[in-house]
Amino acid sequence: MRVLLLLPCLLALGGCNMLMPRHDPGKAWIELNPQVPYSLRAAEVDKKALDEHRFFQISPGAHELGMRYRFEVAGSNIGPGSAPYERNCLIRLTYKEFAAGRRYSLEVGEVGFRPWAKLYDDRRQVVASGRESGCSSGA
Q1: Burial (0-12, 13-18, 19+ Cβ within 10 Å), 44
Q2: Nearest in space to 104 (alpha carbons), one of 33, 24, 32, 30
Q3: Which residues of 70-93 are buried (b: 16+ CB within 10 A; e: fewer)?
C-alpha cells in the first residue's frame, strides 16, 4: 500500500525535469551546477531580469550573465563561538564568445565570505570567471 502512495510522488518529481525546454540549436545553453546544499539561480542576462531561474539560453555573441548565489559562511570563518552567517550574492560574468548550439556549465563556490563563479565550455575548459557584484545577509 505504501508503494502505491509513493509512486505518484516519484512520477511527479520526474515530471519536473520534463518541464525544461528543449535546447534551441541557434542559442547557447548555460546549465547551472550548484554545490549542494547551496542555492544558485539565474537572475539576468545583459541586466534584464529572467523569468526562468534554472538555466540560461541565449543568442550567440557577447553577454553578461547575472546569477544569485546563497551560501552559508561557517562560524569558524567569523570568529570563535560565532554562529554561521548566510550570504546572498549577485555574481556577474561576462563572456564574449557564446556560440550557437554549444553547452556551457556555470559552477559556483565560495572562500570565506567571497563567492566565485566559473564558466566551462563543453570540453570542461574554463572560459570566463565571475565577479561579486554585491552581497547581503540572509534571504
Answers
A1: middle
A2: 30
A3: bbebeeeeeeeeeeeeebbbbbbb
Is the bond leading into 8 cis (omega within 30 degrees of zero)? no
Q: In what order do the strands lie in the sheet with 39-45?
A: 48-49, 39-45, 61-73, 85-98, 131-137
Q: What gap in Å lies between CA 58 and CA 30, rounded to an integer? A: 8
Write the DSSP symbol of residue 107. E
> How far is Cα 46 from Cα 113, in angstroms, rounded to an integer?
26
What is the model's pTM? 0.77
DSSP state of 83: P
- Residues composing the chain: 139
pLDDT tens profile 27-82: 999 988 866 556 888 889 999 998 888 888 999 999 999 999 998 888 777 778 88
Q: Phi and psi for 34 in degrees, rounded to 5?
A: -75, 155
